[in-house]
Structure formats: structure tokens, C-alpha cells
Amino acid sequence: MRLTRAGEYAIRCMVYLAHKGKGIQVSKQEIAERADIPAHFLAKIAQDLARAGLIAIKQGPKGGYSMLKNPEEISLLEVVEVMIGEIFLNDCVGRPRTCKASKQCSVHKVWEEARAQLRRTLGKVNLAELSESDSCIPVFLVHN
Amino acid sequence: MRLTRAGEYAIRCMVYLAHKGKGIQVSKQEIAERADIPAHFLAKIAQDLARAGLIAIKQGPKGGYSMLKNPEEISLLEVVEVMIGEIFLNDCVGRPRTCKASKQCSVHKVWEEARAQLRRTLGKVNLAELSESDSCIPVFLVHN
DNA sequence: ATAAATAAGATATTTAATGTCCTATATACA
DNA sequence: TGTATATAGGACATTAAATATCTTATTTAT
């Protein structure tokens, strides 16, 4: 597992949208500026988030992005895994074929456990909680 | 955090040595073959392990590697962190400078917690346990 | 002294992430 | 219905890191 920059950006984008609320549309530009994400890169990330059913994208003038679910219904894990795929801590667990002995391997078991634990921790947190308290996004409690 | 191939190899190498026992010297070639590690790559990895005080390296004919501590005294976490540095799950936590709001950020807190949990899990397991039961290394319970 | 075994550093090779650019498409509004 | 605006989607460039290999140097047993 490695949270890529794309992953961090996706979280920021979703936290920003969550703060606005379900169904509230926000322009790409606004998100890019306020959440400090390169605009072109955000476009990519948004496409992934849309494909995963987390946000809706509207084209044209007054276009933008909006959350499709309630922030409570989206976990941090969900956002992360949309961007980087299912979380694994090592190849051995992620691609069992590369490891001959994974079935009985004691090392393997530890990584499996660690992985499950990590996914549980990230799965317990939802976007509502994250957007209520302070977050990475610099003061976005501004009227507009 | 991403367990690199070098990390996986280091674990295999250490588990192999642990199985032999503290102070028992094994040639690089033997380890490379039995633990399925590219020999040249193993040399690099061994240098890191030696620098960290985990193994001793002996040059010359009848040279090789040996464990400097009892297997019980070395945790999986220790081996991993020698190879990939202190474990972090994301940039934000690893390099706080890149994130302005890390102090009060709610997302940051989750990653911190997840990180601590992961390190605890890996820290609880030692090489003795790992080498006693079956592991990644294909049947090395062979006399020589 | 010689041969064997590893050290250390330089240098490919590969892979992935990151970021940018260009053309296409959708849509609000005049 | 046409035009301007905003995003889509794919191609491409750049950077960075991991992985692996090769060459020369050093150590040491005999």
C-alpha cells in the first residue's frame, strides 16, 4: 500500500465535496484552487471517482462535480481504493502467484493480518466525520 | 508504506538466518539459492542489514553472513524498516512539511493511527516465531 | 602468493507516478 | 440554432524510484 498523490488529492476533493453536501455542485476550478490540486490532474481523478459512482460530473457551462451519496455513506477506505486499487501491503499478499508458499507461510499471515487491520481502520471513518472537523483543506468555511 | 522487493528479500534472508540460529554463518550463495534471491541483489541487501547491526558479514573464502542477535530479539518491523526506512502510509504523515494543516487535520489523524497500528502489529512478531513455523522459503529444513 | 568470497560503487533497465497538452463532447444561453 | 464555456478522454512528457547487473577492490583461508 502506498497512498499516491492522486490518492491524497482524491481525498481532499471528496472531503471538500462532502463539506458542501450531497448533490451540491462545485466547479472543477473551485475545487482545484481551494483543495490545492493541479486542475488537469483533478480532471483525471474526478473521472475515476465518477466511474466508481462516488460523484456526478456535469459538463458544459456551469458544469462541475457533486457527491452522489451522503457523506456518511462513503468511507475513507472507499475513496482510497478507488484511486489505488484494493489495499495490499506487499506483493506476496497482493499477488499470491508470486509466492509459492503463501498458504502456510507465517510471514504471509502477519501481512494478511496487518492488511485487514488497516482496511478496517480506514473503513470505519466516513467523509461526514472528516469534513466536520478541520482537515487538510485550508479554511474552506467561506461563503460563496 | 510499500514493502519493496528488497524488503521481501531481506525478510527471507533474515528468516533463513534465524532458522540457522544466532552466530551460524551461511554463504551468500546458499542464501541466494534457498531463499530465491538474486545473488547480486542479496549483496546489497546484506550490506544494509549489516550496517543496521542485524548481521555480520565475513569476507574471503568461507565467508558469508550470520545473525548477530537472537532471533527472538529481532522484530519483523525492524527488518522492514532497515530496508525501506520508517514506515509511513502517506506523504502527509511522513513529511509534515508538505501538508500545511497536519496539526488539526482529521484525515491526518486517521493515517497516524493506522500507521501506529501497523507498526505495532509488525513489531510484535519476531524472527524466532517466523522461522519456527513454515515460511516463504521453500523447504529449507535440509541437512548440510 | 593464490584463489575464493564478499564489498562498494557505477550503471543500465524497468516500472510507476505525476503532470501537461490537445482534440472531442456536452450544455447553458444569447 | 450558434457560440462560448467547461469538462472528457486519450496521448504524451517528465520525473523518480525500484530492481538488477557489472566491474573493480578488498579481505582472508590455505
Would you give an account of this structure?
The structure is a homodimer of 144-residue chains. The first copy, chain A, starts with a helix and ends in a 12-residue tail after the last helix. Chain A has a two-stranded antiparallel ribbon. Chain A is built from 7 helices and 2 strands, in the order αααββαααα. Residues 140-144 of chain A have low confidence and may be disordered. Chain A is elongated, with a radius of gyration of 17 Å. Chain A has one domain (5-132): Orthogonal Bundle (Arc Repressor Mutant, subunit A). Chain A is mainly alpha-helical. In chain A, α1 crosses α4. At the A-B interface, α1, α6 and α7 of A face α1, α6 and α7 of B. Chain A binds a DNA duplex (30 and 30 nucleotides) through α3.
CATH architecture of chain A: Orthogonal Bundle
For the largest beta-sheet of chain A, the strand count, sense and barrel status come to: 2 strands, antiparallel
**How are helices and strands ordered from N to C of chain A?**
HHHEEHHHH
Q: Work out the oligomeric state of the chains in this entry.
A: homodimer
As laid out across the biggest beta sheet of chain A, the strand order is 1-2
Residue windows where pLDDT falls under 50 for at least 5 positions of chain A:
140-144
Count of DSSP strands of chain A: 2
The domain tally of chain A reads 1
Average residue pLDDT of chain A: 87
Q: CATH homologous superfamily of chain A?
A: Winged helix-like DNA-binding domain superfamily/Winged helix DNA-binding domain
Determine the structural class of chain A based on helices, strands and strand pairing: mainly alpha
Proportion in helices of chain A: 40-55%
Q: What value does the Rg of chain A take, in angstroms?
A: 17 Å
Shape of chain A: elongated
CATH class of chain A: Mainly Alpha
Largest interface (C-beta under 8 Å): A-B, 40 and 40 residues
> What is the end-to-end distance of chain A?
38 Å
Looking at the structure, the CATH topology of chain A is Arc Repressor Mutant, subunit A
Give the DSSP E fraction of chain A (strand runs of 2 or more residues): 5-15%
Alpha plus pi helix count of chain A: 7
